[in-house]
TrEMBL record:
Reaction catalysis annotation: [GlcNAc-(1->4)-Mur2Ac(oyl-L-Ala-gamma-D-Glu-L-Lys-D-Ala-D-Ala)](n)-di-trans,octa-cis-undecaprenyl diphosphate + beta-D-GlcNAc-(1->4)-Mur2Ac(oyl-L-Ala-gamma-D-Glu-L-Lys-D-Ala-D-Ala)-di-trans,octa-cis-undecaprenyl diphosphate = [GlcNAc-(1->4)-Mur2Ac(oyl-L-Ala-gamma-D-Glu-L-Lys-D-Ala-D-Ala)](n+1)-di-trans,octa-cis-undecaprenyl diphosphate + di-trans,octa-cis-undecaprenyl diphosphate + H(+)
Topology class, membrane: Multi-pass membrane protein
Protein name listed in UniProt: Probable peptidoglycan glycosyltransferase FtsW
Main location: membrane
Organism: Pacificimonas pallii
Lineage: Bacteria, Pseudomonadati, Pseudomonadota, Alphaproteobacteria, Sphingomonadales
Keyword match Cell membrane: no
Keyword line: Cell cycle, Cell division, Cell shape, Glycosyltransferase, Membrane, Peptidoglycan synthesis, Transferase, Transmembrane, Transmembrane helix
Biological processes, Gene Ontology terms: cell division
Keyword 4Fe-4S: no
Family recorded in the similarity comment: Belongs to the SEDS family. FtsW subfamily.
One Pfam family from the record: FTSW_RODA_SPOVE
Annotated TM spans: 27-49, 69-87, 94-113, 158-177, 189-222, 276-302, 314-339, 351-372
EC number, as in UniProt: 2.4.99.28
Locations listed in the record: Membrane
Amino acid sequence: MRALRTMFSRGDRTILGRWFWTIDRPLLGMVLLLMGIGLIAVAAASPAASQRLSGANYTYADLYFLKRQVIWVAIGLPVLIAVSMLPKLWTRRLALLGTAGGLAALAALPFLGDEGTNGAVRWIIIGGSQVQPSELLKPMFIVTTAWLLAFRFDDPKVPAIPASGLLLVLIVALLMIQPDLGQTVLVSSIWVAQAFIAGLSATLLAILIAIGAVGILMAYLFVPHVTSRIDRFITGEGDNFQAERSIDAIRSGGLFGTGPGEGQAKFSLPEPHTDYIFAVIGEEFGMIACLFVAILFLAIVVRVITQLFDEDDPFVTVAAAGLAAQIGLQAFINMIVALDLLPSKGMTLPFISHGGSSFLALCIGTGMLLSLTRRSRFLTRAAEPEMRLGAT
């Protein structure tokens, strides 16, 4: 960031200059730091992931997943920056178009989707790569929901909460057809938080929480793989392989870790480069590194919230809060699953886990967050000396 400061003066009126002096640079810096940590973590997990997926002999030079992650970062970072340059109007338009496209893709999954584990159909194969529509839909839905809820601030009689609620119900129905309980819980929780910011009453909030609890109970009773995961988590009996291997990896690392490339427990860890990459960080870099990652995610959420205290636009407030909640809540779920405090959800650690559609979706969502929280105060301050000179 310091190098960039020397490139642009405060009075720079070019597109890049205006972007640099209006963007939330601390927030962008924390996201870039997470991406850097992700490259290191994927490099540590790559040999283990290659061995588990190929079943063949491996070497530490086998960094297939790291090479792929470098490609995703090379694609995702320009996307993030490009989206962050959009004016608010175009960010909202992008969200509306993305929501419509995401809903169409979710509806097409039963017919065009590729079946994964437990019979779940969550991916579409495009050009040899798996694309998960629900990941790309999340940030679009969050901003679209904020746009709908913002109408309530202009006219409290507008049924903004019921309208956005109907959109949520449609998405939840499409997600449960897959089925994908983890994404359903995440999207629903974010919507509840946004609706509460928009004025949802405490009574309705309690009712919605009760409905959510009933929904989870129904999934437990009627969705076999959900039943199995929850039973294993509660009783500790049966095939609890994933949780046991994750805890073994974290324990073997202790406070300071075994050192880069020295971890051995990761080779028996399921999905070490995606769902359980937090355990790889714990084994090779220690619990102190895990704590640093957790604090970094918390700092991102706190940064966004504090920036919104001075925000006058309700649309920006609700949208930015929702996008920050997505990053924070998804990271929280991934980390506590790795610590065996929650049943496995198949959810990635934002910006750190290896991924394609998940990583790109996070870059788009963060670009939207940076776009919506851009402030013109820097340009205003830069123009003040010129105004004073003109006045004299």
